[in-house]
Design brief:
This protein has four helices and eight strands; from the N terminus they run E-E-E-E-E-E-E-E-H-H-H-H. It has about 190 residues and is of the alpha+beta class. Strands 1-2-3-8-7 form a five-stranded antiparallel β-sheet, with no helix packed on it. A hairpin with a 3-residue loop joins strand 2 and strand 3. The longest helix is centred in the middle third of the chain and has 15 residues. It is rod-shaped, with a radius of gyration of 42 Å. The relative contact order is 0.11. The N terminus is likely disordered.
Length: about 190
């Protein structure tokens, strides 16, 4: 697999490649390097490898690898070749790695999501509806009322053509409910 990354020093583009066997991972940093061992420093840790080296042009670079699996630092080595820097990482366990480097996921503080009280939400929604609408008030009176209240509301509303709404069954039961249009209006039948 071929990859490139930008070195921290002077923003150098660094090309690297890696392959593996059952017992080791070989990482190659491609490019002509200086042949001097003093110009190349590789530090091995169990989960990290840090490389500080110079290309043949004298350009320094730093590569920091956060390995996806642990290695044995004491058995890991490196060689400076004419066309690349070859790093041999000794695996702690035999087997193949899926990826060379682990991806660092920044975790934020887990949000504390409280379960929603849906009964409370419904109650708040119906409260808003009740506050703003006269029809909702009438619905509430009708649904909470006794059978006599419901009969009185139905009879008064139907007989008056929607102009009267009474909850008193004793008054409504006696006679037919008269049509009483609002002030300044006159009642007319549709067929007139």
């Amino acid at each position: 697999m071929m990859a490139s990354c930008v070195g921290e020093e002077n923003k150098v583009v660094i090309k690297k490649d890696w392959y593996q066997s059952e017992s080791q991972v070989i990482v190659s940093i491609l490019g002509k390097h200086t042949s001097s061992k003093e110009d190349c420093n590789v530090k091995f840790d169990t989960h990290e490898v840090t490389v500080q080296a110079k290309f043949a042009t004298g350009q320094p670079y730093t590569v920091h690898l956060k390995l996806s699996k642990p290695i044995v630092p004491n058995f890991s080595t490196y060689k400076v070749l004419s066309s690349k820097l070859e790093i041999r990482l000794a695996k702690t366990e035999g087997g193949m790695w899926d990826v060379l480097e682990r991806t660092v996921v920044k975790t934020t503080k887990p949000s504390t999501i409280q379960p929603r009280n849906w009964d409370k939400v419904v109650k708040e929604m119906t409260k808003e509806e009740e506050d703003g609408d006269v029809n909702t008030l009438f619905k509430k009176i009708y649904s909470d009322g006794s059978d006599e209240v419901r009969k009185a509301m139905n009879k008064s509303f139907l007989e008056s053509g929607g102009t009267v709404l009474s909850t008193n069954w004793k008054d409504v039961a006696k006679d037919k409910v008269d049509i009483k249009p609002p002030e300044g209006m006159e009642w007319k039948k549709w067929d007139e």
